[in-house]
Design brief:
It is a single chain. The chain is 48% helix and 9% strand. The chain has a six-stranded parallel beta sheet with strand order 1-8-5-4-2-3, sandwiched between helices. Strands 6-7 form a two-stranded antiparallel ribbon. By secondary structure, the protein is of the alpha/beta class. Helix 11 crosses helix 15, helix 12 packs across helix 13 and helix 14 crosses helix 15. Bound molecules: 5,6-dihydroxy-NADP and zinc ion.
C-alpha cells in the first residue's frame, strides 16, 4: 500500500425529501445570496426547482436563477454565470441537476474568486487558488461530481473538453434523494451506471495495485452496480435500486477507491472527453464504447489483474493453466453486460463512424498536441491512442 491522504469534506444528506433542506444547508455554510443553477428543463418540469425555491425563500435567502446547462457543459454559459454572480454579489452556488450542472457550477465558482479568465485553469495556464462554495441537489447517479475534485468544461472555440481539478471545488454538501432519479430516460440511467463503474475501474486497473481492502471495495461497488442497474432500468421507481446506484456514484469518484495506490489510469476518460468534446456523446456511453478496445490493447501488461477482475467481479472461473483466457473472458463478460443495458461497445454503436482524419485529430487533441502521454496501467502515447480509437471504431 502506498502513502495517501484522504479528505472528502462534502456533507452527504441522503434519502427521501432531503432537497427540502437546501435553504438550511446553505445558511449553515454561511451563504447569503445564491445562484440557482440548473439544466435544460427536467428540474423545472418535475417540480423540483419550485421546491428548492420555496426552501430558499423559507430560509430568507435571496437568489438569482441561471438555467440552460447542456450535457458536456459549455464555457460560454460559465462565463455568463460568472458575470451574473459578480453583478449580483452571489456568494453561494446551488447546482440542481446532474454532473454537467454541478461541473458548470464549479467552474462559475472558480470564476467568481479569480480575476483572470476561467479557461486559464482548464487549459492549465494557471493554477486555481480557491472557489466559491458550492452545494448540489443531485438528479442523476453518474459522475460523482457531487463529491469529486473535478469539473469538466467544453470550450466551443475548438470544441476542447478539459478538466479543471482541485480540492477547492468539492461541494460543501450534496442533497441526494434517489426518488429524483425516477424521471431519468433509460439511456441516461444506463450511461450513468457505466460511468460509475468506469470511475471504479479506472482506479482498479493501475500499477502498482497492492491495496487489498481498496480492491475489495472496488469489487463490491462494481457488483452492486451490475446487480442494481438492470433493476432500475426494468422498474425506474425501484427506490432501493436507485438508492444503491446513487450512493455508488458518490463513492466511486471521491477518491476512497484509490486509497493506497496511485490515483488511477484515466486513459479511457481522457479519450472519451475528446469524443464528448467533438461529437457531444453522453459521457458514460462514450466510455462504454471505448473500454473494451482499451482493455484488449493493454491487458497483457498485467494479465493477473484482468484475471482477478474476471473472477471477482464478473464471476468467471479461473483457468489456472491459461489465466490469459480468463482475462479475455472477463473483458467479453463486461461487454455482454454493457449490451444488456443497451450501452455500446464500439463507436459505431454510438451512432457514427470515425474517419481516419477524425481519429488523428482525436488522438492529437488527447495528447495535447503531442506534448503528453496518458495512463498509468500502461502509458499511452499519441500513436497508442490512435490505435485504440481505431480498434473502437
Ligand atoms: O438538462 P436537463 O433537462 O436537466 O436534462 C439532463 C440532461 O439532458 C438529464 N437529466 C438529469 N437529471 C434528470 C434528467 N432527466 C430527467 N430526470 C432527471 N432526474 O440528463 C441529461 C444528462 O445530464 P448530465 O448532467 O449531462 O449527465 P451526467 O451526470 O452524466 O454528467 C455528464 C458530464 O459530467 C462530466 C462528463 O464528462 C459530462 O460532461 N464528468 C464530470 C466528472 C466530475 N465532475 O467529477 C467526472 C466524470 O468522469 C465526467 O467526466
Ligand atoms: Zn466519468
Amino acid at each position: 500500500m502506498t502513502n495517501f491522504s484522504y479528505c472528502v469534506p462534502t456533507k452527504i444528506v441522503f434519502g427521501k425529501g432531503v432537497e427540502e433542506q437546501a435553504g438550511q444547508e446553505i445558511l449553515a455554510c454561511g451563504g447569503k445570496k445564491v445562484l440557482l443553477h440548473y439544466g435544460g428543463g427536467s428540474a423545472e418540469r418535475s417540480g423540483l426547482l419550485g421546491r428548492i425555491e420555496r426552501s430558499l425563500e423559507a430560509a430568507g435567502l435571496p437568489y438569482v436563477r441561471l438555467g440552460g446547462v447542456v450535457p458536456n457543459p459549455r464555457l460560454s454559459l460559465v462565463r455568463e454565470g460568472i458575470a451574473l454572480c459578480k453583478q449580483e454579489n452571489v456568494d453561494f452556488i446551488l447546482a440542481v441537476g446532474g454532473g454537467s450542472v454541478i461541473d458548470s457550477a464549479k467552474a462559475i465558482g472558480y470564476g467568481i474568486v479569480h480575476d483572470f479568465d476561467v479557461w486559464d485553469i482548464f487549459s492549465k495556464k494557471r493554477a486555481p487558488t480557491g472557489c466559491a462554495p458550492i452545494g448540489a441537489v443531485l438528479t442523476l447517479s453518474a459522475t460523482g461530481s457531487e463529491t469529486s475534485a473535478s469539473t469538466v468544461i467544453t470550450n466551443e472555440d475548438g470544441w476542447l473538453k478539459r478538466s479543471g481539478n482541485s480540492e477547492y471545488i468539492r461541494p460543501r454538501f450534496a442533497l441526494m434523494n434517489p426518488e429524483l432519479t425516477y424521471t431519468l430516460p433509460p439511456y441516461q440511467t444506463a450511461s450513468g451506471g457505466v460511468d460509475i463503474m468506469m470511475h471504479t475501474m479506472e482506479r482498479y486497473f493501475t500499477a502498482p495495485a497492492d491495496a487489498e481492502l481498496t480492491d475489495r471495495m472496488c469489487e463490491a461497488l462494481l457488483k452492486t452496480v451490475i446487480h442494481n442497474l438492470p433493476i432500475a432500468l426494468a422498474n425506474p421507481e425501484d427506490y432501493n435500486a436507485r438508492a444503491e446506484l446513487m450512493w455508488a456514484g458518490s463513492l466511486s469518484h471521491c477518491d476512497l477507491l484509490n486509497a493506497g495506490r496511485d490515483r488511477g489510469d484515466w486513459s479511457c476518460h481522457q479519450m472519451e472527453h475528446e469524443l464528448g468534446g467533438m461529437f457531444d456523446v453522453a459521457h458514460g456511453a462514450g466510455l462504454s464504447a471505448i473500454w473494451g478496445s482499451w482493455a484488449r490493447y493493454v491487458y497483457q501488461h498485467n494479465i493477473g489483474r484482468f484475471a482477478q477482475f474476471a473472477v471477482n467481479v464478473m464471476d468467471c472461473t479461473l483457468d489456472f493453466a491459461h489465466p490469459e483466457r480468463t482475462a479475455l473472458e472477463g473483458i467479453c463478460a463486461i461487454e455482454t453486460f454493457f449490451h444488456s443495458v443497451n450501452m455500446p461497445t464500439n463507436i459505431k454503436e454510438l451512432g457514427f463512424t470515425l474517419t481516419d482524419a477524425q481519429i488523428t485529430e482525436l488522438a492529437h487533441k488527447c495528447a495535447f498536441d503531442g506534448t503528453r502521454t496518458i495512463g498509468s496501467f500502461q502509458t499511452l502515447n499519441e500513436q497508442d491512442m490512435a490505435a485504440i480509437f481505431t480498434a473502437a471504431r
